[in-house]
Structures are given as C-alpha cells and as structure tokens.
Amino acid sequence: MPPIEPLPFRIAVPGRDKLGLDGARSVSWKITGLLHHEVTQLAIEWEGMRTTESVTLAGVIDKVDPMPAEVLEVPIELVAEAWLSGGWWWPRFILRGRRLDVFDGLPGALAGRAVLRIERRHRDIAHAIAAEINR
Question: What is the DSSP string of 68-93?
C-alpha cells in the first residue's frame, strides 16, 4: 500500500487575558502542524507563534514570538484508537492513547488524548490514517 499523505492540522489553545491596574494584556497562540503515519509510529510535528498584545498608559505593544518547530514520535502500539468528530462544519481528528503521558509535550493534549482540528478537504487523509491506526 502506498504511504498515506501527512495530515495538516491546527491545535486550538485557549488564550489568556489579563486586566489590571497596570493595563490590559492578551496572549494568543496559533499552532499548525503535520501528522505523519509511519509503519511503527506516528510523528506529530508542529510549529506556531505566540502573539502578545498589551495596552498600558505608556502605549500599545504588539509582539509576535515564533515557537520553534517540534516533533513528537509516538509508537503506534501506544495509540488505542483514532476517529473523526465534529461533522461537516468542525472536523476534528481525535487520538486516544493507551497511557496518560502518550502525547505529553503536544500543546493542548490532555490525559492521553489529542484533538487536532483539520480542514474538510483533508477528511479523506484523516479517514485513511484512522483506519490504519484502528486496524
């Protein structure tokens, strides 16, 4: 069988807002990546940027900090299952691990579960990867 194309994804990470006597600050993240299905492992690579917007009496500051690219390699036997959720409008690719720490280091991963937002046009790739994982 030919290799499956990498699955492009985004990760939703909640922003942080702070309002105080010294001003207002808002921090947001934009994280994108690729999920590679290999014979013995999943390779999840991502990069992103953090945007900080501050408003104080001294002025307005917008700062963008790039996040370095990172890779998490997960042995395929540690992935319990994968499925698509969210229907047509909000498709998500969900991975459930066999241990709580399987996806440690991946932004937004929690308790052995990773939720990757995908575009509708990549649903076929997601279905193919899920079928291979669940096989």
Answer: EEEEEEEEGGGEEEEEEESTTTS-EE
Q: Which residues of the chain have pLDDT under 50?
A: none
Question: Three-state secondary structure along 32-59?
Answer: EEEEEECCCEEEEEEEEEEEEEEEECCE
Look up the CATH number of the domain holding residue 56.
Answer: 2.30.29
Provide the number of structural domains found in the chain.
1
Range of the domain at 107: 7-134
Q: Strand, coil or helix: what is 125?
A: helix
Q: So what's the pLDDT on residue 1?
A: 53
Residue 25, C-beta contacts closer than 8 angstroms, at least 6 positions apart: 17, 18, 52, 53, 54, 55
pLDDT of residue 2: 61
Residue at 47 is within a domain: yes
Contact 95, 82 (CB under 8 A): yes
Global pTM value: 0.87
Is residue 61 situated within a structural domain?
Answer: yes
